[in-house]
Structure formats: C-alpha cells, structure tokens
Amino acid sequence: MYAIIKTGGKQYRAEEGAILRVEKLDAQPGEKVEFDVLMVGGDKVKVGNPTVKGAKVVAEVLRTERGKKITVAKFKAKTNYRRKKGHRQWFTELRVEKIRLRAARKKKASEEQAEE
Fold first, then answer.
1. Is residue 40 within 8 Å of 101, Cβ to Cβ?
2. How far is CA 64 from CA 11, 17, 21, 28, 89, in A?
3. How many Cα atoms sit within 13 Å of 44 on the Cβ side?
4. How far apart are alpha carbons 80 and 94 in whole angstroms?
5. pLDDT below 70 — which residues of the chain?
6. pTM for the whole thing?
C-alpha cells in the first residue's frame, strides 16, 4: 500500500519504511510529523477531494541538512557579462512509519452506557 502526500508545494509517494527528502520542515530530528493524504493506492485506490478523510501518514524526522551545491551561471554574448553563483537547498529527510486509513473513533459516553 502507498499514499500520495503533499508538502512544500510538491507531491510525494510514501510507502511504509521509505525514506523521503522533502522541502525543509520546522521539526527537530526524532519528532513525528503527520501529513494529509491526497490518494491511497494498492489493492483499492481511494482518491481524495482534495484529501482522503481520516487518512494520515506518520513519519519520523531523521535529519535536516543542505543538498549538493548547484552552479548557476548567467552569460550574455558580446557584452562581457558573466555571473557565477552557487546554491545549496535545505531539505528534511523523513522515514515513513505508518499509513493510517481511519482515525480512531472515540465512543461517546451515551454509547458506552447503552452497550452495558
């Protein structure tokens, strides 16, 4: 079973045990974060409108670091214009722990009394 989640303006395919690199999140290593699910796939496919009700993906934050350096170069011919710049994007690495399809329902006190 897999789920499609959205974070940082991008969509990611999450499976239990998978490691994802997403845009930087405000979370410390070891913390648990939850994401809403846009779609659940597997034996049965469920598509949300915009999200699947009661479905959540729980992930643990492994680390927050900067990615590899990329070089940005600008050049204009015949004008002696050249610019070179580097950039390193921040990312958060997550390990997907669980894909929950339904939130646990709490019984109301009246329902509990009716059962007894």
1. yes
2. 19, 18, 9, 8, 11
3. 2
4. 45
5. 103-116
6. 0.76
